[in-house]
Amino acid sequence: MEKQLLRITVNHQYHELYIEPKRLLVEVLRNELELTGTKRACSTGACCACSVILNGMAVKSCSVLAMQADECEVLTVESLAENGELTPLQKAFLDFGAFQCGFCTSGMLMSATAFLRETPKPTVDQIREALHGNLCRCTGYNSIIRAVKAVADGKYKGSSQ
Q1: Residue 67's CB: how many other CB atoms inside 10 A?
Q2: Of the candidates 54, 79, 104, which is a domain's last residue?
Q3: Could you give the CA distance from residue 30 to residue 84 in angstroms, rounded to a whole number?
Q4: Number of domains in the chain
Q5: What pLDDT, in 10s, does the model give residues 67-120?
Q6: What residues make up the domain containing 52?
Q7: Claim to verify: residue 54 and residue 93 sit in the same structural domain
Q8: With contact defined as beta carbons under 8 Å apart, do 96 and 106 qualify?
Q9: pTM: predicted TM-score of the whole model, two decimal places
Q10: Same domain assignment for residues 17 and 72
C-alpha cells in the first residue's frame, strides 16, 4: 500500500510523516513519534486508555485513523506538564490517589482536561458522565471524581503549591 503524507501538530510541534493510510493515530503517536504516554489497551475504543485531545475534543486514538488527523492538532498526556510543573489536575490525581497501576491515568487525564475546558464548573454527576467509558480496574473511580471536582471547584491547591 502506498504511503501518504500526514501533516499533524502534536503537542505544539509540527510533523510531516509518510504513513500507510490504515495506521491508527495511537500507533503513529506511540511508534513514530515515541509518545508512549498514550496507552493502547483494548484496541476497540471500549476503555479510553488511549484518549487524546484532537482539535479540542477528547477522542479514542485507537478508533481514529491517523490520516483523519491530517492538518489537525493533537495533545497527548505529555503536553500537560509545562517546564516540569504538573497541572493542578495531575497534582490532584497524585494527592487524591486517583491512580494505582496507572494504565488508565493518561486517558483519564486527557478526558478530564478536555471536559474541564468545556465545562469549567461541573457537578459530580456531570463529571461521572464525562468520564463514563474511561475504564479503571483499580481505584473504584471515587478518588478520580474527587480529584476532578476539587480542581473544578478551585479548592485544590496541589501538594507542590
Answers
A1: 18
A2: 79
A3: 21
A4: 2
A5: 999 999 999 999 999 888 999 999 999 999 998 888 899 999 999 999 999 999
A6: 4-79
A7: no
A8: no
A9: 0.93
A10: yes
CB 128 within 8 A of CB 60: no
Can you read off the three cell numbers belonging to residue 31? 511508534
**Residue 75 phi, psi (nearest 5):** -120, 130
Lay out the sheet containing 4-10: strands in order across: 13-19, 4-10, 72-75, 51-54, 57-60
User: How far apart, in whole angstroms, are the C-alpha atoms of residue 152 and residue 145?
Assistant: 10
Compute the residue count for the chain. Answer: 161
**How far is residue 37's CA from residue 28's CA, in Å, rounded to a whole number?**
13
Q: 148: closest CA among 134, 117, 132, 127? A: 127
CA 148 – CA 69 distance, rounded (Å) = 28
pLDDT exceeds cutoff 50 at 160: no
